[in-house]
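At your convenience, could you comment on the folded chain following this short note?
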Amino acid sequence: MGNQGLLQHLANGISLGSLYALIAIGYTMVYGILRLINFAHGDIFMLGIYITYYGVLFTSIPWWIVFIFASVFTGLIGLLLEKVAYRPLRESPRITILISAIGASFFLQNFGIVVFGGRPKAFPIPNVFNRVVKLGGVSISMITFVIPLVTLLLLLGLTYFITKTKTGMAMRALSKDYETASLMGIDINRIISITFFIGSFLAAVGGIMWGIRYPQLMPLMGVMPGLKCFIAAVIGGIGNITGAVLGGFILGLGEIMLVALLPKLTGYRDAFAFILLIVILLIKPTGLMGEKITEKV
């Protein structure tokens, strides 16, 4: 593999890793506060793509406005999901809310099949993303550059929000000690709702860019990316936003380089994520940047 081929694969790996990182942040934020794995997160990702698809295809609104509206609307769906499927069970045993999350995932998948149909659809890609950039003799699509840039900007914005605003400080307090934070007057329901909104918003942004990068839409398309982004969050240390980003890049680059260096193992690309997860957990069970959490009995 020459330098040009390596540059091409690195660009693709960074692009895919950025997508994984963006979606993994939603998993890690919810877990950090509620100690809940939101298994419906991948299906929220799917809804974001479909909302964008219908908005671009059947309205005359500029595509960038549709992208923003679809992301915000998907964030509101995530907020509604928390109120309906998770909030009533918040004081229930952990296994109960976990089962509710799995049920919500199955519901959204079947809702997608009934409403959107099972036949694959082609995502309408704006012309600006079809441009090809020549870099060092390598042809790289514009979206390959856009994805890491959008991920970086959103990550910087999220970091500022969490570290500099009162709501962000309340999120951090809630993640450290749920009971003490509630006793100090923090509005628990409001903070958790905002967390779900942000996570679902980021999933929608990731979904839109995924649709541009891989323009084939299906109601079950969120299952495998959802699992991989969960794996990325666990690899980095679930509950840690920086860890989720790190895990996303490790997984994305690892997948692309596996296919590039060992093309005969292309069919095992998805298996690579699970093998990497097992190896990381055997070496460091809390993930690369995770902290050991002692649960109260």
In short: The longest strand covers residues 132-135. The mean pLDDT is 89.
